[in-house]
């Protein structure tokens, strides 16, 4: 993870409590059901300038706001995705570069995730699922376990065996009930299945108070 300075302070915690599902008992869905339910909320992302570009993924949190990793979108003037054969553009990112959490807004409607789950409720050994677009392969789906719950440079991160690759940055990690638990961010390439997601709690703490359309 690259060390960054702040883009802009966005300290609001204005997020509907009901969406941060604190329920500990829910029906476990099959992988087929999970992908059908969750994949519309995760989409590939391209970010370009005249000189360079990057690819990653993003997760819709509201109808106009998505979260991704700053290293995907920072210093890029042209941020977009394609959904249902329609190109959707996003405004400049805001967030916390040091935590690698950035928010982007669009005037087009997105399909937000239905629920999130607190980091403090997670247990090592739980089954999890990742959705991202590694190597441009749109919404690739992988299954794994929570391998560890770590604090890295003051940030809560989830270690998982669910496969992620280059291009998975900014993608989603869900529990077996379909609740968003993390943003897939990096992997350790000198080992096997050492993949990491930033806990969604970290993003919710930074979520902008107003999801105004980007201009």
**N-C termini distance:** 29 Å
Low-confidence sequence ranges: 1-24, 210-215
Helical proportion? under 10%
Biggest β-sheet: count, sense, barrel?
Answer: 7 strands, antiparallel
Cα-based radius of gyration, to the nearest Å: 16 Å
Q: What order do the strands of the largest sheet run in, or round the barrel if closed?
A: 5-4-1-2-3-7-6
How much is the average pLDDT?
A: 84
Q: What are the secondary-structure elements, in order, as H or E? A: HEEEHEEEEEEEEEEH
Count of beta strands: 13
Structural class: mainly beta
Shape type = globular
Percent in strands = 35-45%
Summed up, the helix count is 3
Overview features:
215 residues, 7-stranded antiparallel sheet, 6-stranded antiparallel beta barrel, disordered C terminus
Overall description:
With 215 residues, the protein is mostly beta strands. The chain is 9% helix and 38% strand. The chain has helices spanning 31-38, 70-73, 200-206, and strands at residues 42-48, 53-60, 65-68, 78-83, 86-90, 94-96, 101-105, 127-132, 140-152, 155-160, 171-175, 180-187, 195-199. The longest helix has 8 residues, at 31-38. The model is unreliable at 1-24 and 210-215 (pLDDT under 50). The strands form two sheets. The chain has a seven-stranded antiparallel β-sheet with strand order 5-4-1-2-3-7-6. A six-stranded antiparallel β-barrel has the order 8-9-10-13-12-11. A hairpin with a 7-residue loop joins strand 12 and strand 13 (195-199).
